[in-house]
Amino acid sequence: MSAVMHAASALQLRGIHKTYQLGEHRIHALRGVDLDVAPGELLALTGPSGSGKSTILNIGGLIDTPDAGEVVLNGRAIAGLDETQRTLLRRDGLGFIFQNFNLVPVMTVAENVDYPLFLAGVPASERRRRVAEQLAAVGLAEHEKHRPDALSGGQRQRVAIARALIKHPRLVIADEPTASLDSHTATQVLDLMRDSAHTHGAAFIFATHDERLTRRCDRVINLLDGSIQ
């Protein structure tokens, strides 16, 4: 694969196979998956539970490794990288929106959103400005001092989305990002993600069953039994 091909995609998967051992049974989660996600693209993965959506997210997000195949993230081949290098790549180039939010319960809303900037060493004044802008964009400016347990599920999801976008990542990995949102809020956050894609060239890859989301994606890929249909 050429360097030019690498540079053209936010994420490339080539010939990805992944199996899991479940008791005496071997589960084939992915069977030779090829996938390219372009900068600025919103890509939805659909399919029934167990079809391989979450496995693609985990491999693309460097949380899991394939049994076979090649992963190229933001132009860099992943094969041979140690865990420290993978962690730095995740921190620098990826945003994550998890179905269970993964917010830090002892931190306020503002502190949760600020945390990636803090880890990156961004000056405090710049962090405050960017956090305020991001919370306003997801409609949570008045909740900045609240902790996650004081928020509804939809509000916590919006905090998670704000945190994922705060560093303008090149690729955002999202597991059912609109599942707990009402229609009005879902539209707001989809507009925010679309704006991030257009303004910063961020690519988004979603695992979703939500037609509100799939209708507004650039491309929808259906998975079944670990294969793209």
UniProtKB/TrEMBL annotation:
CDD domains: ABC_MJ0796_LolCDE_FtsE (cd03255). One of its GO terms (biological process) is response to antibiotic. SUPFAM superfamilies: P-loop containing nucleoside triphosphate hydrolases (SSF52540). Residues 11-229 form the ABC transporter domain. Keywords: Antibiotic resistance, ATP-binding, Cell membrane, Membrane, Nucleotide-binding, Transmembrane, Transmembrane helix, Transport. GO terms for molecular function: ATP binding; ATP hydrolysis activity; transmembrane transporter activity. It comes from the Bacteria. GO terms for cellular component: membrane protein complex; plasma membrane. The keyword Lipid biosynthesis does not apply. PANTHER family: IMPORT ATP-BINDING PROTEIN (PTHR24220). Belongs to the ABC transporter superfamily. Macrolide exporter (TC 3.A.1.122) family. This is ABC transporter ATP-binding protein.
